[in-house]
Fold Basal-body rod modification protein FlgD.
Amino acid sequence: MEPLAIANGLTGTAALGSGATAEKAKTTLNSDFETFLKMLTAQMKNQDPLNPVESTEFASQLAAFSTVEQQVLTNDLLTGLGTQMGVLGMGQLQGWVGMEARVKMPVAYDGAPVALTLETRPGADLARLVVRDATGGIVHESSVPATGGAYSWHGLGEDGMPLESGTYSISVDSFQGDELLGSDPVASQARVVEARLSDGQTMLVMEGGQIVGARDVLGLRQPDAG
């Protein structure tokens, strides 16, 4: 009778540790161990007495199961540590609530001018601001300094009239002559109103409703008085 393929049979158990709860993993592991013992006992009872399985093969199978068991427990430990670190990061970022963060994100427009930071490509001699609404349609295009930097967007449409209040995606297209070098989203500032944990990542909710990753924040400052 061939030796048991225990290591391959338990691959699913190892994968379980990374996504399931520790209790479920332990229950599955105990069940697998009982199955392993039953198969091992059956193998010993039904082996050919003239060609018995070497004791080293039994030891190898036990070692394989032990390795899988350790992998499951290690995965559970790493999952728990990852969750704890995420909670710790969120706790630290609670101090960001109420501050203004500069992030490359859609812009919330409410009728007032919006301060932007433009990023253009090296070598650009022409840059155009492109504003898109929630459907992705272009509602405004205009020339901006090819050097980039601070810029005040007044929220005007193609007809020169203020756009409706809402969220707009704004980017800068950089050109060298007639060649498009690339398109880059602008950075804008908004007040942080909440820090939350989502799928192990710390996310920030901005005053305009945008949700961005804490790691995407480019700058942070106290809001202007008044």
